[in-house]
Amino acid sequence: MPQRRRVIINTDAKNEADDQFAIVHGLLSPSLDIRGVIPAHFGTRRSERSMEESREEVDLLVKLLRMEGQVPVANGAAVPLADESTPRDSPGARLIITEAMASTADDPLFVSFLGPLTDMASAILLEPEIVNRNVTVIWIGGREHGTGGYQTTVEFNLSNDIAAANVVFDSGIDLWQVPSSVYSMCSVGYAELEERIGGCGELGRYLITQLVDWNARHHGEPIESRSLGDSPAIALMLYPRGAVSREVPAPRFGAEGGYLPGSGHPIRLVESVDVRFMLEDMFAKIRRFAREPRDPDAS
Prior knowledge:
Elements: E1 5-11, H1 19-27, E2 32-39, H2 50-64, H3 91-101, E3 109-113, H4 118-126, E4 135-140, H5 156-159, H6 162-171, E5 174-178, H7 180-183, E6 187-189, H8 190-197, H9 201-218, E7 225-227, H10 231-238, E8 243-249, E9 252-253, E10 259-260, E11 266-273, H11 275-291
Parallel strand pairs: 1-2, 1-3, 3-4, 4-5, 5-11
Antiparallel strand pairs: 6-7, 8-11, 9-10
Keywords: Glycosidase, Hydrolase
Domain Inosine/uridine-preferring nucleoside hydrolase: 7-243
InterPro entries: Inosine/uridine_hydrolase_dom, IUNH, Ribo_hydro-like
């Protein structure tokens, strides 16, 4: 068996302030063989060049991690699907296809989506055979299942490409969904961040500062914390059994983000994650990185 798990991270990195932590955690994890990071769009409500901004953020994080030239970065689609039958071809979608087609029974591929499912849907539409390969898609998105939940509007990641979500959920690919009711329970406080990674050099300072700054610009009420809602995707790739989950029939999504009857293919609905492991492992790896000596020849 391979000693490292093949992984692709698809991220709308500049959308909010939590993707950054997930990306860093993934890249600092030795058991994850990061085959590529795919910058994703996050709609046009905040920017007309969202995918490009995600690319710039990924490049910055790679630089802060001193991994320039070591991490393949392949741009995803700049806009959502126009409909459920027309892919958005991109280097990111092609990377997913290449790695998926190389999967075997003993060497699976995990593809984590921290934003919309545009690039996964495009890969499926471009090469339907990947649905039959040993590929697991982990998606942070969608509101909680059932009735009586707190969220009545369309969940953000879903809202940026409902057509893509329907393509992926209909496809029958191995799919794990981490809905908003789970990812919103992964909060950290400003004080905790300062205590855990405040002394971790340029990387730690950037992670904290960009999070606090984002809240100051976009949060409309008093707050001193933020959910690291994208980090469960990394924790599940590090330890796939580190969650409580159940199998449910795959739904479809309506225009308002609600669930409709779908293909019925089984998907894995994640209902809770091991937040202690997720946060402690991430903090420990950032602190360890900060202790590593710099290359004296580095510019």
